């Protein structure tokens, strides 16, 4: 029996210093492990407990851990997870499927063909973002993997009406909009994490799929899994979004990441991958 565990990364499994959400007194705050360094500075963290649980989860050959992210390949490859290296990784919101760190060309061709058929071109959407964004709050504009576009903004200054108008404009062109932290994403609707997860499940013969995520761009992934979790923060939590197979957690911040890894461990144990074993005990 093979269990596929597909987890979003930022603000689900790993957390920047700004997203840690540590509300307890400093002397009782959890110990943290840095899992990403950027420009010689620590960038992303897990609790040490979450790290140990993830290492044990991925040590079992019957568990296929699939990091699943909107990050580009370059951004993803900065992360150093504990435990066995992931054979598969989903980047660019499903646009890139990495196999042992190498992009799968057949998958990319399939994605490109579908986007060309169903969506307005990237150039049109990127041009609209640049034309309508206000320099007063726009800090950067980027195109990721020639698949989607995003803006880095001063979020407090961005009018809600602008975001709503952008979402309405994009919807009519086959695109979706997501606001995550200081980034506003414009992503083709067919570009989904769930499609890539299904492909990995097909290749690995996974009998069960588990997932976690916090944003609008993760909703399709959570719905596609046999069981899924969302933390008590993020776009989905703010909207009160859930589904019959999705467990909404009350915990927010980096401790939510720890709770998610525990939930994965419990679910794997229930599937009989390691009945009665250490994973079931640690994940309880």
Provide keyphrases for this structure.
single chain, disordered C terminus, globular, 10 helices, 5-stranded parallel sheet, 4-stranded antiparallel sheet
Outline the structure in words:
- The chain is of the alpha/beta class and 284 residues long.
- The protein has helices at residues 48-59, 73-76, 105-118, 122-132, 160-171, 193-204, 219-224, 235-238, 254-270, 278-282; strands at residues 3-7, 15-16, 32-38, 41-47, 63-67, 88-91, 96-99, 102-103, 138-144, 148-153, 175-180, 183-188, 208-212, 227-230, 246-248.
- The chain is 34% helix and 26% strand.
- A five-stranded parallel beta sheet has the order 5-1-13-14-15, with helices on both faces. It has a four-stranded antiparallel beta sheet with strand order 9-10-12-11. A three-stranded antiparallel beta sheet has the order 2-4-3.
- The longest helix is centred in the C-terminal third of the chain and has 17 residues, at 254-270.
Instruction: Return Rg in Å.
Output: 19 Å
Number of helices: 10
Mean pLDDT: 93
Q: Structural class per helix/strand content? A: alpha/beta
Shape: globular
- Give the DSSP E fraction (strand runs of 2 or more residues): 25-35%
Instruction: Report the biggest beta sheet as strand number plus sense, adding barrel if it closes.
Output: 5 strands, parallel
């Amino acid at each position: 029996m093979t269990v596929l565990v597909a987890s979003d990364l930022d603000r689900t499994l790993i957390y920047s210093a700004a997203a840690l959400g540590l509300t307890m007194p400093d002397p009782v705050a959890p110990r943290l492990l840095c899992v990403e360094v950027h420009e010689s500075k620590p960038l992303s963290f897990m609790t040490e407990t979450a790290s140990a649980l993830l290492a044990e989860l991925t040590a079992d050959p019957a568990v296929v851990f699939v990091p699943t992210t909107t990050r580009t390949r370059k951004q993803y490859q900065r992360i150093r997870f504990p435990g066995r290296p992931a054979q598969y990784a989903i980047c660019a919101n499903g646009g890139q499927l990495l196999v042992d760190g190498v992009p799968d060309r057949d998958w990319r061709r399939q994605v490109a063909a579908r986007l060309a058929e169903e969506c307005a071109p990237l150039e049109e959407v990127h041009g609209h973002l640049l034309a309508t964004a206000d320099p007063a709050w726009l800090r950067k504009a980027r195109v990721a993997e020639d698949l989607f576009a995003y803006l880095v903004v001063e979020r407090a200054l961005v009018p809600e009406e602008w975001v709503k108008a952008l979402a309405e404009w994009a919807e009519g062109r086959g695109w979706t909009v997501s606001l995550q932290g200081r980034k506003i994403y414009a992503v083709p609707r067919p570009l989904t994490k769930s499609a890539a997860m299904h492909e990995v499940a097909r290749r690995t013969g996974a009998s069960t799929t588990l997932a976690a995520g916090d944003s609008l761009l993760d909703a399709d992934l959570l719905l596609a899994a046999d069981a899924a979790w969302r933390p008590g923060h993020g776009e989905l939590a703010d909207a009160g979004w859930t589904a019959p197979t999705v467990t909404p957690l009350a915990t927010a911040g980096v401790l939510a990441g720890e709770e998610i890894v525990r939930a994965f461990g419990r679910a794997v144990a229930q599937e009989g991958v390691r009945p009665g074993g250490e994973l079931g005990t640690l994940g309880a």
